[in-house]
Each structure stands twice: as C-alpha cells, then as structure tokens.
Specification:
261 residues; alpha+beta; Arc Repressor Mutant, subunit A; Endonuclease, Chain A; 8-stranded mixed β-sheet; 3-stranded antiparallel β-sheet
Length: 261
C-alpha cells in the first residue's frame, strides 16, 4: 500500500515491506516479520539491521523472551527525506566543482577532447573558477576595458581568490590608456602583464591557457558565454603561440614600493 511512497522516501523495496509490516502490526519477532513480509529469515534480519541503522526500527529484548522489533514514528521518514535532500544538494555542488577536472582527466586518458559550454553571468563565474583549480600558472589574453566595464566586481572577487591561492598569471593585454592606468595597482604579487599594440577593434573577450585546457569568455552584456576545451594538442598550440607573443610584447614597469597590490 505504501511501497511507492516509501520507495520515494529512500527505502528499498524490502525495507519498505518490513517497515510497513511493523507500522501495521506493531512490535513483532523476526520470524513473524519474515512471514508477513514474505521474505526469507536471513534477508529479514539483514533488512531489520538496515532499518535500525537509519533509525526506522528498534530492537527490544527482554530476558527470557524472543526479541521483537518495533517501528519508529513515521515523522522519522520526513527527517530522512530532508537529510537525503541536503546530501543530494551537497553532492551536486561538489560535482559541479569537480566536473571540469574529471572531464579533463577523462579526455587526457582517452584522447578525446571535451568541451563545456556555459551562458550568462553565472556561466562566466564557473569558467573563471575552473582556473582556480589549476596546478600550473595561467596564461591569458584579455580585453581589460571590457572586463572592467562588464564583470568588474566578478573579476575583483576572482583575482582576490587567485591571489589567496597563490596561482600566478601572465597576461597579454591590448595597449590602451585605460589598461595602463588599471595596471598601476593590479595584483602584481601573482600577476605579470605585457602589452601589445594592434590596430584592431576591442575583442571583448578573455582567453585563459592553463593546466592542459583553454577557456574563453565573451563579455558582451547581452550575450555572455563561456567555454572550456580540454585537449592537450589545442593547449600546446596556444601555449606556444602565447610564449612567442610574450617574448615580443612590451614589459610593464612594476609599481613603486608601497603601491596597493
């Protein structure tokens, strides 16, 4: 009668059978429970132990009498359902944080490139946060003016986390007056930047090269997207091109001692 409801609450089919038997009949011996539930004696003892473990059944023993088992109040089911919901939410959060690394390991071992795609501000945060698990330095191309304009607060929080974790970053940036002004007090303890002069429109995006992966974010307010590509060959190509351009880009003079970092 209650089997489907009890199953949805997290009980197995056999657990639901035995708990329902106890609910309807009160305290019973294992032999009676086995008979009512239509289960073998050994399995009945096993399931009763499981129900005791989650607080849905209790064993009552009196000297000289056969032990009997009684059910816990049905409100305990609600407690269990709430607990499982919390555990599921925690597991989902933990998986979200680890999924990129898991996919990366799979791709590297299987030789299959993987791509993760995200949209919106939350997607941008997830792509940036993935770099915070990097075991290598981060190499970047960035349109700083677009970063300041469109994700300034997000970037400020992100860089503070990166600095706390001690993850170094080398960045190649478009040479503009706004970029030079911004770099005067940028996080120089973990960041080194160089400039390139190009006659090109702002590219309104950021590219990060790190830990065998490439990530992109676009910074147009009406259409922010992010992507992570885990492929060693693509990573190696972009890393080589970055190092070449880094070698010819203009160095930035570090700020004077005492500047904010």
């Amino acid at each position: 009668m209650y089997d489907q409801i009890l199953n949805r609450a997290g009980l197995s089919a056999d657990q639901a059978k035995i708990y329902e038997v106890l609910l309807k009949n009160g305290p019973l011996s294992a032999g009676k429970i086995s008979s009512y539930a239509g289960l073998k004696r050994g399995l009945t003892y096993k399931v009763l132990g499981e129900l005791e473990g989650v607080g849905l059944a209790a064993k009552k023993s009196e000297k000289g009498a056969v032990a009997r088992f009684e059910p816990a109040h049905p409100l305990r089911l609600q407690d269990l359902a709430d607990q499982r919901a919390r555990e599921a939410a925690d597991a989902h959060t933990a998986l979200e944080g680890a999924i990129a690394s898991l996919i990366s390991d799979y791709n590297l071992s299987s030789g299959k490139p993987g791509v993760l795609f995200y949209e919106g501000v939350e997607g941008i945060k997830r792509v940036l946060d993935d770099t915070l698990d990097s075991k290598t330095e981060i190499c970047s191309y960035a349109d700083i003016e677009a970063v300041i304009k469109n994700i300034g607060a997000i970037n400020k929080t992100y860089v503070a986390k990166r600095e706390k974790l001690g993850i170094r970053r080398r960045g190649i940036l478009l040479d503009t007056p706004a970029t030079r002004e911004y770099l005067k007090d940028y996080h120089v303890t973990v960041t080194e930047s160089r400039l390139i002069r190009v006659d090109a429109p702002p590219f309104e995006s950021v590219m990060n090269i790190y830990d065998g992966k490439i990530s992109y974010i676009t910074l147009q307010p009406d259409k922010m997207i992010g992507a992570i590509i885990a492929d060693r060959h693509i990573y190696n190509m972009h890393k080589y091109l970055f190092e070449y351009l880094w070698g010819i880009a203009e160095k930035i003079t570090p700020p004077a001692p005492g500047s904010r970092t």
